[in-house]
Amino acid sequence: MALPRLAPSAQPLDVTITVNERLRPYFTQWFQDEKQEGETPENFAIRQMKKLAMRSYITSVYEAEVLKVTQAQSLAEADLSTDIVAIETEVE
Predict the structure, then answer these.
(1) 92 vs 87: CA distance, rounded Å
(2) DSSP annotation string for 12-43
(3) How far is it, in rounded angstroms, from Cα 31 to Cα 25?
(4) CA end-to-end distance (rounded Å), the chain
(5) Spatial distance between the Cα atoms of 77 and 54, rounded to a whole number of angstroms
(6) pLDDT reading at 5 higher than 60
(7) What CA–CA distance (Å, rounded) separates 21 from 8?
(8) Three-class secondary structure of residue 90 per DSSP
(9) What is the mean pLDDT of residues 12-29?
């Protein structure tokens, strides 16, 4: 399953995160717990965003496949119900 690539942009994507004072200790602890050796907060944020984007993509593909299976199952059940009624009402 290949990730679709977005067209390159000439403009960089700038993201600013403002964290409420009460939440800062939690974000700081998360960063300290999860950062890789020598990783800057900016690189950490980019790595986390990539991870979330991948999870989101995989989830959306999975949900689409589940929907297809559910629809196919509903169609099969509808077809089978017609056959079952025909068999049950058949006179010998």
Answers:
(1) 10
(2) ---------TTTHHHHHHHHHHHPPTT--HHH
(3) 10
(4) 53
(5) 34
(6) yes
(7) 36
(8) coil
(9) 86
